[in-house]
Amino acid sequence: MIDNHILAPVFIHLFTAIIQLIAWRKTVSQRFLSVGGTFIGLLIAIRLFAKVYTEGSLHMNASNWEAPFGIVFVADLLSSTMVLLTSIAGFAVSIFSSVGLSRQRMLYGYFPIFHFLLMGLNGAFLTGDIFNLYVWFEVVIISSFVLMTLGGRKAQLEGAVKYMAMNILASTFFLTGIGILYGITGSLNMADLAIKIRNFDNKALVGITSIFFILGFGIKSAVFPLYYWLPSSYHTPPSAVAATFGGLLTKLGIYAILRVFSLIFIPDDFTRTLFMVLAVLTVITGAFGALIKTNIRRMFSYLIVCHIGFMLGGIAMFTKLALMGTVFYLIHDIMVKTNMFLIAGFIRMVSGTMDMQKLGGLYKNYPLISLMIALVLFSLVGIPPLSGFWPKIYLFQEAFVDKQYFFIAALIIGSLVTMYVIAKMWADVFWKDVPEGVAIEDKYKDLPLFKKLLLVVPILLLCSVTLYIGFNAENIIIVVDRITNELLDTSPYIRNVLGDKAFEQ
Amino acid sequence: MELLLVLVLGLLYAAGVYLILRRSMVKLLLGIMLLGNGTNILIFLLGSITKGKPPVIDSNHNVFQDIYADPIPQALILTAIVISFALTAFAIVLLKRVYALVDSDDLDDLNTPEEEDI
Predict the structure, then answer these.
(1) Which of A45, A311, A379, A404 can bridge A399 by disulfide, Cβ–Cβ 3.0-4.6 Å?
(2) pLDDT digit string (tens) for A46-88?
(3) Domain-by-domain residue ranges, chain A?
(4) Class of domain B2-51+69-103
(5) Is some CB atom of chain B closer than 8 A to the CB atom of A138?
(6) What is the ipTM metric for this complex?
(7) Which residues 250-309 of A are in CB contact (within 8 Å) with B?
(8) How near does any CA of chain A get to the CA of B118, in Å?
């Protein structure tokens, strides 16, 4: 069905950013605009999701050029779910950064760039054209470069060099893949590519092309041998920025893998084995990396890598239950990881450091907030009724059926290490008394109540979404089930974009 | 023509990878630029080169009567060039700032112990 409102989530952030550029250096009005813009964006995303959920997939031809000749935007259930999650995370981060960020950074355009980043993410989730996907990726990485370097401290710039080099390299690989794909099929529309690749005889060439996509998306989503840039850069920017990055950017890579490898390159034995090896190694290296870090955000960075492995393992098995695990984990992970970095920012606000050895006594000073944080941490670990638990059941069950014993071992190690490091963090940061000789600088205590709320409400918002995902897992599973069906049988997607004539040849 | 482009393309990729593997930041940037240009030539090459046949339909017909040059690869390359221009401009400024702060061109020196911020 054709619907021009698909692009509303993209335009709302574009216009918010432009209005904010007009209000350059007026940080108060920029804050209001940002919170207002992300709130309207959230409403639009809810409307889009509801519409796709009730009426089925939508599409829109840019400038009315019929697919496959023009650029097409598609909102199927996976895309609209991702847009919805991005909007929730964006809303929370926007509220948090209105207090949690130094005024210096806002003066140099934090908010407009943040909205350009959200625009790029929404565009990437909604596009149905592979070259357009590349362009949205570039919008995202240029915005993220600016956010990462904003402030210009030494550690930040050093992290940014690694981040920049690896991400430009990833884009180059991705573009190379697109070039070869265009050379062998003569099309850029993903639905059209799906049909043309299926009828293409030289499977070896298709396999080699898919390697370029694995390399490109693998760097973006921090998969095993390509993840080194992530832990060495994500701990440097302010926590509000790290929350956007940690929650959304690596998941964009996973989304792209899901989309491209379900639609264009159907995973064969080689690709699946490759994914499985990468997934196992990603989980194990991420877990061991998290073990040795004492800085909270460095530890979280390694946990991101570790949990990317869980999702990749699900894609590697590529069965219905495994994909359900992956998609459910993706939904859970965006909410929790964004929240984790916001919590890191909160901890830094109340105690002036993020080194676990110097932290302590948070539970004594802030018992209620600590309890809320505990719920988020339990969700991340996957204590039964909470959200991290349900996708793991699917992954475990399917790994047994598929006889992927290495992946089961990796899942167990990854989950145990996650539990261990979170328990260690809880003991160190919340229960332990403040170590002797460490002076706490509590900036939070002296803030007026309104600003305190602005810091705590986004954490509470994301926490309640996480709790909803955990306690209403049956509702989420209905959505996840439909998404998985669409991933496994792509003919509705193709029919939606190209019409019935696509299957006639 | 194709053979020449293939050779140039291989050279650009090889030189790009070689430069990226060096430890100098400036060489890293040059390597990335060369790789990007190599990719552009790859797209140009894979769009199958047709000489002297512009994709214009003359006024007497509704469809193409003859083989014609595909305009899409050129549109793709143009987009890619603009994007890599922006990225390179940003990267040069970033490297200049890093050089001023760290006072070294060596990637291995980029490991200052953390100083924290919100």
Answers:
(1) A404
(2) 999 999 999 888 988 888 888 788 899 999 999 999 999 999 9
(3) 267-492
(4) mainly alpha
(5) yes
(6) 0.92
(7) 295
(8) 5
